[in-house]
Structures are given as C-alpha cells and as structure tokens.
Amino acid sequence: MPENRKQQLILFVRELRALYRHLYNTRPGDQPATKGAALTRSQNELLSVVAKCDGGITTTHLAKELHVSNGAVTQTVDGLVSKGLLSRQENPSDRRSTLICLDRPLQPASFEEFYVDHISPLFADLSDTEIRQLIALLEKIKKEQS
Predict the structure, then answer these.
(1) What does the alpha-carbon distance between residue 144 and residue 109 come to, in Å, rounded to a whole number?
(2) CATH code where residue 16 lies
(3) pTM for the model
C-alpha cells in the first residue's frame, strides 16, 4: 500500500472514531422514548433494535444484529429488564428460547428522530448531494465486506 494512501486511511480511521464517539455520546436520559432512564450506549442500541421487532426478538438474533456476543446481549438485556424497559417471554414457536420484548411501548421512530436531531449539526455544511455521496461510499465499503 502506498505510504500516502496508508496515511489517508489512518486519518480516516481517526476521524471515523471521533465521529462515532460524537454520534453516540448522548447524556443518560436524553432519549424521550425512555422517559429519563439512565441508559448506556449499548442499552440504547439494543432498545432501538428491539423496538423495531414486532413481537420480540431472540438473544441470538439480537447478537447478530448488533455484532456482539450472546453474553453481551444477555448482560445488556438484564440491565434493561431491571429498569423495567424489557421483559423476557416464552417463544411460542420454540419453547427452548425466549423472546426479548418491550415492557412498555417505545416507538422506533422516536429513537431515530432523536439521533437525527442529535447529529444534524454535524452535517449542516454538507449538501444533500454530498450526504447521498457519503451514504453511497459507506454502502460500497459495507458491501465489499460482505
């Protein structure tokens, strides 16, 4: 790899890391959908996935969706169950597994709207065309990893 390209990729990784930290640096309880519950980034991410799954989701599917281990999902779910945000229910199609379900109604749109509102200032200087280009580039990188 040419040295210039390597330096560009190092800079890209640094900037991406900083952007990621900013995107997920929400203060506990900022999310209107969780009504002030102090949540970690992992708990927010997990809740947003469960909120999109009508009827619940297994820990195995959550782990695949979040790209983490089953143990990490179990630990995060335990915390959310103790906060009264999630519950475990018997899986009617497979008694050997349980479904992770919302304990109270949370709308997935409220999570997405919160994050869009939170990150909008970061992208204020980008045109609609530049945002579409950024999306296309990220999709291309993701596709090449599949």
Answers:
(1) 29
(2) 1.10.10.10
(3) 0.59
